[in-house]
Specification:
Elements: H1 3-13, H2 20-42, H3 44-55, H4 59-62, H5 64-83, H6 89-108, H7 113-140, H8 147-175, H9 178-199, H10 211-215, H11 221-233, H12 235-242, H13 244-251, H14 259-283, H15 285-306, H16 310-322, H17 326-337, H18 342-369, H19 377-400
Helix pairs in contact: 1-7, 2-7, 2-8, 2-9, 3-8, 5-7, 5-18, 6-7, 6-9, 7-8, 7-18, 8-9, 8-14, 8-17, 11-17, 11-18, 11-19, 12-18, 12-19, 14-15, 14-16, 14-17, 15-16, 15-17, 15-19, 17-18, 18-19
Length: 405
Amino acid sequence: MSDIAVDLIDSRSGLEAPSRTAIALVTLALAVGSFGIGTGEFVIMGLLPEVADTFGVTTPQAGHVISAYALGVVVGAPVIAVLAAKMARRTLLLLMMAIFAAGNISSALAPTFESFAALRFITGLPHGAYFGVAALVAASMVPVHRRVRAVGQVMLGLTIATLIGTPIATFLGQLLNWRAAFMMVGGVGLVTMLLIVLFLPKDKVEEGASIARELGALRRIQVWLTLGIAAVGFGGMFSIFSYVATTTTQVAGLGTGMVPVVLALFGIGMNVGNVVGSRLGDLSLKGTIGGMMVFNVVIMTLFSLTAANPVMLCLCVFLIGCGFAACPAVQTRLMDVAADAQTLAAASNHSAFNIANALGAWLGGMVISWGFTAASTGYVGAVLSVFGLIVFGLSVALERNGRSA
């Protein structure tokens, strides 16, 4: 990371030599927010039948609310980052959590399917901006050689949500009512606001901050290339994950009772990948990104070749989850290449990941509709990872030739 980029983060954050305890408390507050967002994003997938019954629609129609949330993320991240250019980061985090909490509580009270879909879109708006700003705040509090780990600790809330938060909220929704699940998520948002108020010091808006300066990120080719790595390179993970239940039952021949176990292995892999990848990223940022792209190509190909074997299926799903290791590194690289427009770049990373989600699920579904088995989604993932590796290689080559802007 350049000295200029470090100075930009430190001056914008306004945090002066925080103690280890202060850093831990701030990180906890930010991670609780990411835990709430992760739980709120994924819990709907296990409650679609209940939602469909409540509003009298089909389950596929109910699935449109997932797309509505994703669209909110894609739209909200860059728009909010630009419009909030002159807002202190602490204030912006509180605002994002307020919208998130209100959106989930309102979703729980939605009277019609149309209003529910609209509220899921609104709830998705602060998703990317929160993660982007939280990553910047976390990185600003630690030495340069620990920034990727700081970003990873914020993202740990998201990965834990896939393993613990979503199952708990889903169980609560099935036991009581799906509305209770969204009430719970809204409650996590309120708790996050309280923790931010208690632990995150007030910061100052950097002199010269403006909408025009944030928009300057869009003129930097390295920002676009790094977002491309996320949007294309990680589509494979979502291609496989979207149809892993079908692969488990129809290809590996396991019972439906094993689906939660396989999903749990994916969640465990994400958590392992996040922790290990964060440490690797501090050792070599580019090496971690490029290495994980190659890792994904190999493991996703192996997934397709061996998915009929239950043991290999479980092993590969775990290792595919470990592919999340590159995510903190990609988030940190965006902070490096964005210069003085870091909020827009960091927030847009989550727009890119939602594009990867949509792209991977669409291509995986298309291949299955052509008559191939669900295991073929591994080949889709491998191809997408190859394209991600190509984009990464182009980014590094241009950087070496002095074309970083």
